[in-house]
Amino acid sequence: MKQKRIAIFGSTGSIGKQTLEVISAHPELFVAEILTAHSNDSLLIEQALQFVPNIVVIGDVTKYANVKKALEGKPIKVFAGEEALEQVAGLDCYDFMMAGIVGFAGLKPTLTAVESGKAIGLANKETLVVAGDIVMRKAKEFKAAIIPVDSEHSAIFQCLVGEENNPIEKIILTASGGPFLGKKPNFLVNVKRDHALQHPNWAMGAKISIDSATLMNKGLEMIEAKWLFNLAPHQIKVVIHSQSIIHSMVQFEDGSIKAQMGLPDMKLPIQYAMAFPQRLKNQFPRYLFDKPNQLNFDEPDVKTFRNLSLATEALRRGGNTPCVLNAANEIAVYAFLRNRIGFLDMTELIEKTLEKIEYIANPTLEDYFETDGEARNFAASLIQL
Ligand code: NAD
Ligand code: MG
């Protein structure tokens, strides 16, 4: 395999840091070419000094001078701001983008990479939730390979290798259930951010950790799966599997089910996406069938975790509804993380925003940006952020 030049969008996040670990483990195969961060300038500087990329971008322009000064004398170009992020995504100097920005902010740079025909390891699921139809259409047009990094979608992608001519009957997305599995509303009403951030199986960024606690993460993943694998809503099933050893499954038309298994460690799907179609030898810990030694499956409690019902409805409705769902959820999570609203209020906020924003059946990209803005403003107005 020729050495791949990697652009990590969101290098200071959970996905970004683990992508750098994979690069460090295979320096002959991968080199960090571009690193970007939103506001964590000190970590970005540290990463830049260690990996000496060609380019770094700091989203927050007020931090530019600091980053520039710290990297003086190094062969590293420093840029700042949202526009720079998008421009850099279109450069020729890299081969593979790790899309590791969180939320709607990842959409523009990822779209630019798609339009530049890059290979993209897609962790940023919100990109497909918001504008999956446009992103997938453009990926086809510009021959950009989108390789899922989200562990469930990576699992499905891995199960589909060699099955190109065999239709999918359905996919089964596994969900850990998060830290509040089995809890009821009378418990959830009092839950605080620090407790909600404690995921039993995965260490992740704050937003996805809250999404996992509310099961919105699985709802977003249903929509992500629809676009990645071209599925109808009825072909997507969610099963609670609290051990997070089976990362997801595909059922084919003969009734056979393929599963992908392993310990919950994002470095595996990250490395798989970066090296695809190769599997690279590594020293990551293995699942040994002793701990845990039982695998369980359950139906999700959608009456308690209503975010999953709202997302399922958005998946069915299509149009700009998933975009509204995502925007309202980003505001809700933001407010919850700052102790402005309670755990159950998040669902109410999303529901009210879904009722308010006008439905568009076939949105353009501009419609998606407008919908996102309107939904954010409305959701924020409900809590006076
Ligand atoms: P994180 O919060 O740890 O990191 C987010 C990164 O995005 C940071 O580098 C930050 O600087 C950057 N960023 C944030 N806001 C930005 C903005 N407005 N403009 C530019 N950059 C911005 O998040 P994470 O857990 O690494 O998740 C990243 C994405 O990957 C999310 O979409 C998440 O759903 C998805 N994902 C994460 C995991 C995981 O294990 N962490 C697993 C599956 C999918
Ligand atoms: Mg996932």
Helicity range: 40-55%
Biggest sheet strand line-up: 4-3-2-1-5-6-7
Please give the largest β-sheet.
7 strands, parallel
Number of helices: 16
- Give the overall average pLDDT: 97
Q: Kindly report how far apart the N and C termini lie.
A: 50 Å
Poorly predicted regions = none
Number of domains: 3
Q: If you compute it from the alpha carbons, what radius of gyration comes out, rounded to the nearest whole angstrom?
A: 20 Å
Percentage of residues in DSSP E strands:
15-25%
What pattern of helices and strands is seen along the backbone? EHEHEHEHEHEHEHEHHHHEEEHHHHH
Structural class, by secondary structure, is alpha/beta
Bound molecules: nicotinamide-adenine-dinucleotide, magnesium ion
Give the overall shape: globular
Q: What's the count of strands?
A: 11
Account of the 3D structure:
- It is a single chain.
- This protein is an alpha/beta fold and 385 residues long.
- The chain has three domains: 4-148, NAD(P)-binding Rossmann-like Domain (Rossmann fold, 3-Layer(aba) Sandwich), CATH 3.40.50; 153-317, no CATH class; 318-385, Rna Polymerase Sigma Factor, Chain: A, CATH 1.10.1740.10.
- It is 45% helix and 15% strand.
- The chain has helices at residues 14-25, 41-51, 64-70, 82-89, 107-115, 126-141, 151-159, 185-188, 193-196, 206-214, 216-229, 267-275, 306-317, 321-337, 345-356, 365-383, and strands at residues 4-9, 30-37, 55-58, 77-80, 96-99, 119-122, 146-148, 168-175, 236-240, 246-252, 257-261.
- The strands form two sheets. The protein has a seven-stranded parallel beta sheet, sandwiched between helices.
- Strand 5, helix 5 (107-115) and strand 6 (119-122) form a beta-alpha-beta unit.
- The longest helix is centred in the last third of the chain and has 19 residues, at 365-383.
- It is globular, with a radius of gyration of 20 Å.
- The structure holds nicotinamide-adenine-dinucleotide and magnesium ion (MG).
- Residues 10-16, 37-38, 40, 59, 100-102, 105, 123-126, 150, 202, 204-208, 266 line the site of nicotinamide-adenine-dinucleotide (NAD).
